Amino acid sequence: MDLTPLDVRYQEFPTGLRGYQKEAVRAYLAQVAEVMEGLIRENETLKAQLQALEEENARLKEAEGELKRAVVAAERIARELKAQAEREAELIRKEAMAAKEQVLREAAEELRRLREETERARQEKALFLSQFRALLQGYLDSLGRLEGK
Q: pTM of the predicted model, to two decimals?
């Protein structure tokens, strides 16, 4: 049974011999009704506050969910970026190794070519010297024949 302040304020009691003083009962019931009205207002205020807090809680839970999703997405993106950076680093390392191998091949080829040129120059020098020696010897022989005549 719900009891409102109006029910309390206008409650009637049967009277008997030597019953309660009506004015005192009315005053007390009015005071009880006022307290009840205050409690009802406070209850309504608290219900409104509770509703607002529940809405805020729901909003915060939704924001928390969004934040968790953002953190998960950020972690996934970070893993993907790291993996991509590792792939790029490996590719750069392979390219550097290939470039190093190419430079070494070119240097070896240049060294071989220079050695061949050096050997050819030695051979040409030796040939020149032997031909020059032979020419000089020929001149010396001719000179010796001319002197000996």
A: 0.47
